[in-house]
Amino acid sequence: MSSLDFAGVQAAAAALQGYVARTPFIRSASLSRALGAEVFLKFENLQHTGSFKARGACLKILKLSPAERALGVVAMSAGNHAQAVAYYSQAMGVKATIVMPENPSAVKLARTRALGAEVVIEGESIDEAKAHAYRISEETGATFVHPYDDPLVILGQASLGLEMFQQVPALDDILVAIGGGGLASGICLAAQGLSLETRIYGVQSLAFPSMYNRIKSSAMPSGRTTVADGIAVGTPGQLTSPILAARLADLFLVSDAQIETAIVDLLETEKTLVEGAGAAGLAALMQHRKQFVGQRVGLILCGGNVELRFLSAMIERAMLNTGRLSRLSVMARDVPGSLARIAQIVAQTGANVERVDHERGLRAISGQVVKISLEVQTRDAQHLEELLATLASAGFEVGVN
């Protein structure tokens, strides 16, 4: 079962039947039209606990011996892996201890505890939490469930790839998010048995390019914060790295702004909510769209656990980055009718005013002026340029903040 080959993938998929969801893998008409490729989306955000991590965690716990089950399991995670281990441990009657670093997300902490796991807060970083989890494992005999560097976990994630190739044969390309590399390695193993011609591309956050550095022999800085916390991994896997080095067609890096734009695009076009890691593949496809024109491309929406307190700010930033929401400063004579004229121009161009602020007391050389700050919604960056040009042609001095 634990052999990292296609036979192991098949055995893992068979063992997981009835325990994990066979998630939809369907063509997106809107993304296909916009990107000039046949784009298929694997909705793994609909998986149990909201991410693909359910697969690897389930397989690992399923394969515990009776003696190992009696001693329980321990894992380190601040997010999806924690919830997956807690969920299947509870379902199979196994005690689970999850070590999280200090100041974890309140929502993820509550969800993990609600699933019956004992949560231990230890360490300022995920690496310190991992060290503490290993100590618990050594002291108690509990089995350590690694989030990616474990053969059973990799094979569990590989069941996702097996489903993809069964559901949509003859994929030309797959773009898959990479943190430690467990999911991407699983996809590569599944491709070895079912679709050798399919090109597999890894996608990492620009803030955490650890696998990129290892495979490309580069030394980009790593360890900053990122909206894609699910792939914010500072140390790539020892088991996963050689698999990916041998099989990946290439590795792409995407910025937080590109990831947030992809999250909002999926929310608008597909009516589905994904987390940063889940949108990384689409972000890379949008960035490198010319390379994939005319191809059958598979994207994995690998997780959907987004905290609502971040969502509105994320949407606003994405709208700002794409020119759909802008803050303008318009200098006008402080006379009756100036604001009405500006509002009329905004309306005539089809834009919408969200907010207006006046700042009086600013004096120009030739007379009194007022600074009018506008927050406006436009269709896109081109529409914003049209609005700016129309205001300028009407004699207003305008800038974008």
Explain what this protein looks like in three dimensions.
The chain has three domains: 6-50 and 157-319, Rossmann fold, CATH 3.40.50; 53-144, Rossmann fold; 323-400, ACT domain (Alpha-Beta Plaits, 2-Layer Sandwich), CATH 3.30.70.260. It contains 16 helices and 14 strands. It has helices at residues 6-16, 29-35, 53-62, 66-71, 80-91, 106-114, 126-140, 151-167, 182-194, 210-216, 240-247, 256-269, 276-287, 308-321, 338-348, 381-393; strands at 25-27, 38-42, 73-76, 96-100, 118-121, 143-144, 173-177, 199-205, 250-254, 296-300, 325-333, 352-364, 367-377, 397-400. The strands form three sheets. Strands 1-2-10-7-8-9 form a six-stranded mixed beta sheet, with helices on both faces. Strands 5-4-3-6 form a four-stranded parallel beta sheet, with helices on both faces. The chain has a four-stranded antiparallel beta sheet with strand order 12-13-11-14. Helix 8 (151-167) crosses helix 9 and helix 12 packs across helix 14. The radius of gyration is 25 Å and the shape is elongated. It starts with 5 loop residues before the first helix and ends with a strand. The model has no long low-confidence stretch (mean pLDDT 92).
